[in-house]
Write a structure and sequence with these properties.
Layout lengths: L3 E6 L3 H10 L5 E7 L3 H11 L3 E3 L2 H5 L7
Parallel strand pairs: 1-2, 2-3
């Protein structure tokens, strides 16, 4: 079964609700979080088990593959 890594930009309340919902899926993993506030990204990553954090949205966007 293929696992899809998700990156979250802007770890606010809506993103938290979204992450709670997608954690129920066996095919989705919260992999990265980007926030302008580095500590907020780290806290959110800890809460949802994300492996990576970024302190700019652009840094996360650069990690997205351009071809599938």
């Amino acid at each position: 079964m293929k696992i899809y890594n998700y990156g979250i930009i802007g770890p606010g309340r809506i993103a938290a609700s979204y992450c709670k919902a997608i954690q129920r899926s066996e095919r989705v993993k919260i992999y990265a979080v980007a926030s302008r506030d580095e500590q907020r990204a780290k806290d959110f990553a800890t809460q949802f088990g994300a492996e990576k954090t970024y302190n700019t949205y652009e840094a996360l966007a650069k990690k997205i593959p351009t071809s599938m």
